[in-house]
Amino acid sequence: MKLLTHNILTSKCLKGVTVGYPLGIVAKEVKVNEVDFNPEFISRMIQKVDWPALCKAAENLGHTDELPQTVVDDYENNEEFLKKAHHFLMEIEVMNGDLICPETGRKFPVTDGIPNMLANEDEV
Amino acid sequence: MMDKIETPDLSHLNSTDYENVYEPAEDSFLMLDALESEIPFIKSLKPTICLEIGSGSGIVLTGLAKCLGSCCAYFSIDINPHAAQVTRKTACKNSVCLEVVNCDLVGPLLPQIQNKVDMLVFNPPYVPTDENEIDPLSPIALSWAGGFRGRTVMDRLFPLIPQIMSPSGVFYLLIVKENDEEDILNVMKSFSWRGSVIIERKAGREFLKVLKFERVKV
Questions:
Q1: Cellular component terms, GO, for this chain's entry (chain A) (predicted)?
Q2: Per the confidence metrics, is the pTM higher than 0.90?
Q3: Residue of B96, B101, B164, B168 to mutate for A, most A C-beta atoms under 10 A
Q4: Is B194 in a helix, a strand, or coil?
Q5: Which of B70, B79, B116 is opposite residue A41, by nearest beta carbon?
Q6: Which of B144, B117, B122 has the alpha carbon at shortest distance from B133?
Q7: Is the CB of B99 inside 8 Å of chain A's CB atoms?
Q8: Given Cys at both, which of A20, A51, A72, B123 links A11, Cβ 3.0 to 4.6 Å?
Q9: How many domains, in total, are found in chain A?
Q10: Per-residue model confidence as pLDDT tens digits over B131-182
Q11: What residues make up the domain containing A22?
């Protein structure tokens, strides 16, 4: 699970959860895979990303202060920024661990890079 | 880049995998053919987020990702944990990056995915069955059992389409005749989405079609 995917996952579908975002990450195994850098794609993607949630996810994985707290102005032309965004969104992968609902503490396991977001019938 | 979709290599899968995961069949290949005919359009759309619901073996999204390349992020959803694993393996085998989530439709992606999906592909469980054949304990039944008129699962997704799709988003849906194309078009029309058949094929007893939907521009 890339942090890009973490960025769109919520636990809002659980009964009683009002926001359910962002999910906490307790990582047991993290991998870094090199992915081709496509600045034009990353620029488009940044418009769809919740940046504060990405920063929080990076912090959860121990990368404190490596990402600017906000998206910089004129990011399309800022290669250094785009490369950082690319690295955190596309290259860092949580292989095993848990995603944690911020309100209920319910754990969603990540196994072999796949988050299991299935909820039981009595939870929704 | 060629506007052709190469059929992905599935040689890593065997009959044991197909006990729990839908084995690609005529419907899967029709969806691949439909998407192949759409490649020039899809490229002009410049999708950033492409999502497939019910990826099964992963054949469709892997083929698409291989063709379009790194200009898009590919997300695959399946309710069946075996299918989620197999989709990931298929992506690796064919050297493409797919993100896989094991969940029921788009539940855990809401509301974050709102207005963000540029392209959605759904080859749903379309076979008309009794409702009780949609058995959560049988992963393979979930891949094909569609309940009344084969519509139970797809009908749950339709109302979410206007919410999750980006302004120029496109939605490809595979159906069979029994699903009632006219009625589906009307349901989508009530959400201000228009659709049309882009490809159809008779395969044994099944008359398969792929519908393409877009937002009605006002």
A1: nucleoplasm; perinuclear region of cytoplasm
A2: yes
A3: B101
A4: strand
A5: B70
A6: B144
A7: yes
A8: A20
A9: 1
A10: 999 998 899 999 999 999 999 999 999 999 999 999 999 999 999 999 999 9
A11: 3-119
3-state SS record for A70-118: CCCCCHHHCHHHHHHHHHHHHHEEEEEEEEECCCCCCEEEEECCEEECC
CB contact under 8 A, A113 and B100: yes
Omega of the bond prior to B124 within 30 degrees of 0, cis?
no
What is the model's pLDDT at position B1?
53
Distance in angstroms (rounded) separating the CA atoms of residues B165 and B42 = 15
Residue A124 inside a domain? The answer is: no
Is A1–B99 a contact, with Cβ atoms under 8 angstroms apart?
yes
Cβ–Cβ under 8 Å, residues A24 and A58: no
Residue A107: which CATH number?
Answer: 2.20.25.10
Which value, in Å, is the radius of gyration of the alpha carbons in chain A? 15
In a domain, B150, yes or no: yes
Boundaries of domain holding B103: 23-215
